[in-house]
Amino acid sequence: MSCRCEPGSSMGHSKRLSRKRAPDISIPPVPLPAVLFDLDGTLIDSNYQHVIAWAEALRGAGIVIPTWKIHRRIGMSGKSFVRELVREIARPPKAVDVEQLERKHDRIFRRQIRALEPLPGANQLLKHLARHGIQIAIATTSGREQTTGLLRQLKIPRSTEIITGDDVEKAKPSPDIFMLAAQRLEVPIDDCIVVGDSAWDLLAAGRKSALGVGLLSGGYGEEELERAGAFRVYSDPADLLMHIEQLGLPGR
Question: Which one in 9, 26, 193, 238 has a CA-CA gap of 20 to 30 Å to 132?
């Protein structure tokens, strides 16, 4: 038995509603995060040269420390780690001129810069990010002069921001250097990915809620980097590029 509905009935009203199309809601695309790189041990294979330079500089001041202890602190500011190492000596020297030690380290290290090589995939990773319009910064504890020499070993995209230890009052593990890099790029720090090889990079990133990504190419272990806050750990820049979609970035 069929039922005829009056024009004002509820069934007729339902039919009219069903014919209406839902309004289009346009969602603007979410911008890709910026990527902030450490330099030594992350893009350039230079950590062990730093260890040798520091060991020689310290010995010249009568401070003999096992090189593995020096390596554990590469990535910290020179002033911070020298003071910490001296405190661990049973009979520390009465006076340590940290600035003089830093200058001597820099002189020794500069002699080795021309022989240094980019880590596998470093140039390819930078090129890939730049091609996709992803903002890049390099934020390193090293001073401006030393950094300039190291950057000559890389193919740096033109738009890359460079931040050195001379640009901030406190170096890693303080987050200042990554904060400044994010400011220069005009990107919130919590919308940045920090790529580094040391626990100090990841601690600095985590203090300001940036996403930390660790690389094994500086000599730290995977477990240590994860404990320091790494979201993912890769062997080197080439390995990161191979798995870059894991970070929400476009692949090749």
Answer: 26
